[in-house]
Amino acid sequence: MHKDIKKILIDQDVLQRRIKELGQEISKDYKGKDLLVICVLKGAVLFMADLVQNIDISLEMDFMAVSSYGDATQSSGVVRIIKDLDASIENKDLLIVEDIVDSGLTLSYLMELLKARGVKSLKVCSLLEKPENLVSKVNIDYVGFQVPDEFVVGYGLDYAQKYRNLPYIGVLKEEVYK
Ligand code: IMP
Ligand code: MG
Fold first, then answer.
1. 17-148 has which CATH code?
2. Which of 3, 65, 155, 159 is 20 to 30 A removed from 167 (C-alpha atoms)?
3. Burial of 42 (0-12, 13-18, 19+ CB in 10 A)
4. 52: CA distance to ligand 2 center in Å?
5. Phi, psi dihedrals of residue 176, rounded to the nearest 5°
6. pTM of structure
7. Could you list which residues have their CB under 5 Å from ion ligand 2?
8. C-beta 110 within 6 A of ligand 1
9. Using 50, 70 and 90 to split pLDDT, how confident is the model at 134?
């Protein structure tokens, strides 16, 4: 285990098993549709890569980057587009792939923005969900795991751009960010 990690919350095997299930569910739900999977960079990149390998219907991928946190550990409520999608999403069946929904601010902003571009349908798949979202109530169609209200890193999730390469989801030691 990495020295800055307090404990492992979700190990590699458990992650991969759940991602396989999500892929199967998505394959079934999107059969015959024009699926476009949108990866929200950078946090969702590892999840997205594993997820699409478990989806067995035809799909396209695109990438988008938004900023919400800077290097702090709490949502600022300010969301900025850093990289927009490459292609038009008009009449597409969109699936947004996120790493984590905490307050839900990032996601609700993103959903409004994409809806306004004339999509046929819009759903969300998030690897993790924190309890705070129960307050803002953003609807997540596919959730990998519920996690407690602690700062987690690994498997794409960062603190100050680090720890994304850890193959598991772990809780960061408080002394690292306090
Ligand atoms: P929200 O706007 O509060 O829902 O925050 C969503 C974004 O904040 C996610 O896409 C992550 O980039 C980041 N985030 C929220 N909680 C955590 C965490 O525990 N670890 C790492 N990043 C997080
Ligand atoms: Mg992030």
1. 3.40.50.2020
2. 65
3. middle
4. 20
5. -75, -35
6. 0.93
7. 43
8. no
9. confident
